[in-house]
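Page header: ASSEMBLY MODEL / two components / 940 residues total.
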Amino acid sequence: MKKMICLTINGKEYELAAAPNMTLADLLREELLLTGTKKGCELGDCGTCTVIMNGKAVNSCLVLAVQASGKEITTVEGLETDEGLHPLQEKFIENGAIQCGFCTSGMLLSAKTLLDKNPKPDELEIRTAISGNLCRCTGYQKIVESIKDVSEGR
Amino acid sequence: MTEYHVINGRAPRLDAPAKATGRAMYVDDIKLPGMLYGAILQSPLAHAGILNIDTSKALKLPGVKSVLTAEDAGMVHYGVSPARYDETLFVKDRVRYIGDEIAAVAAVDLETALEAVSLIDVEYEELPAVFTMEEAMAEGAPQIHDKYPGNMCAEVHQEFGNVEEAFAQCDLIRTDTFLNKRQDGAFLEPNGVVADFDRNGYLTLHTSTQSPHYVMRIIAMVLSLPVGKVRVVKPYVGGGFGPKAATNSIELASCLLSMKTGKPVKMNFTREQVFLFSRARHQFKHTLTTGVKKDGTLMALTNECYLEGGAYASFGIATVYYAGSLLGAPYRLPNMKYDGYRLYTNRPACGAQRGHGGVAARAAWEQQIDFIAEELGMDPVEIRMKNSMEAGDITCNDFNTSSFGMKDCIEAVKEESNWSEKKGKMPEGKGIGIATGFFVSGAGYPIYRSETAHSTVVIKLNEDGGTAHVLTGSAEIGQGSDTAMAMIAAEALGVPLDCIKVSSGDTDFSVDLGAYSSRQTLMTGHATKNAAEDLKGQVLDVLGEKLKVPVDQMDIKNGFVVFKGEVPDFTSIRTIYAKEHRGFFDNPDSDEPLTFKEAARMAFLARGSMVGTGSYKPGDLGGKFKGAAVGTSPAYGPSAQVVEVTVDKGTGKITIDRMTDAHDCGFAINRTSVEAQMQGSLSMGVGEAMYEEVKFDDKGKILNANLGEYKIATALDMPNVDTIIVESNEPNGPFGAKEVGEGAIMPTIPAILNALYDATGVRIQELPLTPERVFKAIQEKEEREK
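Prediction written out in full:
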């Protein structure tokens, strides 16, 4: 039996019917076609499905859609504004922090969560904030540099 | 020195904006109208006979559209190397590992498909199994493939020079045994597919692959379809690293399900299924004996290697050859003997992974060279410099190096890391280590015997010349090949980078063997350069006719026509162009030099669509002995690394403090991407050295088939890497370019091992370097010294 849920995604309010066993990741991907949220393991290990829920970075594969009711969600599609790309997106592009791109959405959202709370993190704080987001391509260096660039206003 | 406008700089990647905004489409993001969902039934037993398969209950489940077994799929054997086609789409009467594919289902949704799979009844007769190389080789061991007695998938015996005679002249001979562990590719995107068989008999497969071309061939062969009717399309791929170069079971199953149902069929591996399919790094057991002269001159090497291969061959024939052929270089080693054995076991099949076949061998030998240096009282840098090959050297197994900046790399990391100030002078618990390595820049021969071009490229100009569209079957899997090809095309055609559009990864576009053996920059790069030059020649041909200027007196640079002599009057061309472009915004200014767009428009008006084509095939490479092809390449990329570590003797925990890496990539097309490949390679090497091991229970079931318990390097594990790009201008590479994607991993593990020894005095000959293993080794050493 589906349940009605009400939530805000990227600033837009939605009223949706969701099966009780549907994850937030599947709601975003399958129902709303917000496919920028990736599914790399569906166990909460890899971080590719990271979204921001009420200011916290969460693995959307471990959140049920019904648990997200009443919450405010930001996905990668919500990072760009009318003013253009988010500075993190710009730096990731400019610095070559993106290779296969499968971790990128989650990385960006974990980084945004960090900078929203702590605009001037040191390198260890940056690395800790993205330590739940696995990347097999980059060795993390250009990702860390990009986050540092944004925090230091470069 | 040639001046370049595009290459050798730092271009942002073409795919980065789509990936940064979530718009990039990966295979699981594809939805087609009427699409069904597929699932596979995999064996729960490591080795068993199949007595009966009953699909009747599954077929009756509402929503199920098709249930397929070997009865429907037939028994066409396939694999990777035609010499060992030992797999079938579904097994018929025997399962050989936990995960072996028995049946597949297509249904209206995934839930129904999975339920149907659970309703298939299989009657098994469990058979004794073998899980290790020792068990596989034991007298009277259960046999996995009737065709390959002794569970011997492949063996290799090679000798170059005369090892025995050389040993007789050596002052020091040392033997070591080294063991790595089975790895997983651990790419972030699980394999997935969408197959679509249309009413006109065309099959399109969207798949997360490294080699659309090879997948297309296998599908056509196994499903008995004409090659021209099968199209394989690679969307964006979330990493591959080797395992995605082999055709997988859901690629074949989804196609057959789509053919049977007439509907598109989507299938995905779960993360656990990624581990079960595996095709990743083998376990290797190397026994190396190296002989040297007192002055450190390397004289001879014998290498005996056993590989635990799993249930099928996959890339394993190439792997067992590579485990031998990739030693020797980067040193001037005159005598080498290799005996390699790849064993079948009742575990998932291993295959290719970054640094194919050579990584464990390299780790073993580079550590042994340090031991030898110590015994001779030589500095590790000195022994490597003394023996290092140089451009033009040919290895004892007939690999020809046309550029080889090995010494430059060693000097570079020595200086950058401040080696001389640190070696032997580090405080307690800290250590420094160096190692080197090299890798092919594209396999010299295709995986199947053929005279085929390794890469063809088509570049199509739109009618005003404003966009040149590069069409290639090559595979962008995250490494940045689309951007490299765009840069090469821009440079060769003479236009700015933003005039190039790249469409890749589609077998309808061109023939390209794909992303493996670090081949695309060199091989697809050559084909791209040739296609761009062909196109430029055609445009200049027409322009020459119009302006009465010989073609060799003109060139195109940065979007403008350049005349070597006097600039002719081109006002008539500008007038024609302006007429054609009345009302458009982008007409050239009246005082601008003649633009490429104007020249291209003239060419289009004169001849119609302007299309340039390019093709690349390496010449005959290598020797004439059996297996001589494996390891041949038009070029080789050497590299050197220095690693600094801190070891906590109380816990055995190693912290990697600093890594300095120098890589000879020939000529860097995109410097940012070269660094990115170096950093990424090192992180995979750190993972293999420190954490990664696929573990099994005593029934052959994987214990850690997830990314929580199978640990790869996180952001907290990786230090920043000092990356030094060494450029050697490779004569066989396009603009002098060669590989960086795999060679960079080669020195990582041994450099860590050598740093660990420097820090603690313990020699560890088994990976991974878990705190437990390191702590025990330190304890044992302290016991011995009491």
